[in-house]
Amino acid sequence: MPPRLQYEPLAKRFRLHARQEARRLAEADLFEFSQQATDTVVRAGAQLREQLHPWTTLVHGPGKVETASILPPSPAGFVFWQDPHGISYLTDGTPIIACHWGHLGHNAYWLAWWCDTYTGLKFARAEGGGAIEDQIGMLAHFGPLFYAEQNLLSPCEATPKIIGRPAGDNRGLDGGLRGSADDPDDEGDDDSVIALVYTTLATWQALTTPGPAIRLTRHAPSDATVAADRAAGLASKPVTLATTTAEGETPPDIA
């Protein structure tokens, strides 16, 4: 929950938070990463964490990350990673495939990561988790994405601090960065959240300073998207697609 909302009465807190999230999503610039580009930023995020996090934890304590002066490409944004395995996962294996953020002022950003509803329900069905009709109803209710994790990234001394769940509250996530092991000696950190932050920082870096390995192209919204946005009272925006130069000149289809 963003800090200012923590002082609101409980009855109003979640309603205000939902309205703020809706505003951030409505204002968000749109970004998408191909599967190969997703793999690139996952690896880059792991490298950032390996290079920066041990020193940051040693000097400033757990729960901090070093952003290396990386800023998002826009004050509010939404990014979708095309890799079906996502950039991380929940305890049941449901992949985290998207993130949105919004600027809160004073170099603070609210971050929220999203899971693949369909895959989560498919896993639940495989384990006997309810009738298919109920799961179809859940998909219709939640839509293709549902909340996985949310946190505040705000300046704290020389490094930003992750403010979110109370210590020891490990709801939801227990996976960490795809392709790397959690550090059992990193006491006090929620490893999975730290991993999400570093992968998101690498994603921002790829969008602001892409380098030779990443190609960025802008795509106008389709007629169907424009019609759907108009019906929902939203302004249609182009999508910036990130692909790797190894993928050739023809970009993959935008989901």
Let me know the largest β-sheet: 9 strands, mixed
**Shape, principal axes of CA atoms:** globular
Treating each run of at least 4 consecutive H or I residues as one helix, how many helices? Answer: 6
Tell me, rounded to a whole number, the average pLDDT: 78
- Count of the separate structural domains: 1
Helical coverage, percent range: 25-40%
- Ranges with pLDDT <50 over ≥5 residues? 157-189
| SS class | alpha+beta
Distance between the termini: 30 Å
Helix and strand element order? HEHEEEEHHEEHEHE
Query: What is the number of beta strands?
Result: 9
Give Rg in angstroms.
18 Å
Strand content: 15-25%
Summarize the structure in words:
- The relative contact order is 0.18.
- The protein has one domain (3-118, 144-247).
- Strands 1, 2, 3, 4, 5, 6, 7, 8 and 9 form a nine-stranded mixed β-sheet that branches.
- It has six helices and nine strands.
- A hairpin with a 2-residue loop joins strand 6 (145-156) and strand 7.
- With 255 residues, it is of the alpha+beta class.
SSE order and pairing:
Blueprint: H1 10-27, E1 29-33, H2 35-60, E2 76-81, E3 88-89, E4 95-105, E5 108-116, H3 117-126, H4 132-142, E6 145-156, E7 159-163, H5 191-208, E8 214-219, H6 223-231, E9 239-244
Parallel strand pairs: 1-2, 1-9
Antiparallel strand pairs: 2-4, 3-4, 4-5, 5-6, 6-7, 8-9
Helix pairs in contact: 2-5, 3-4
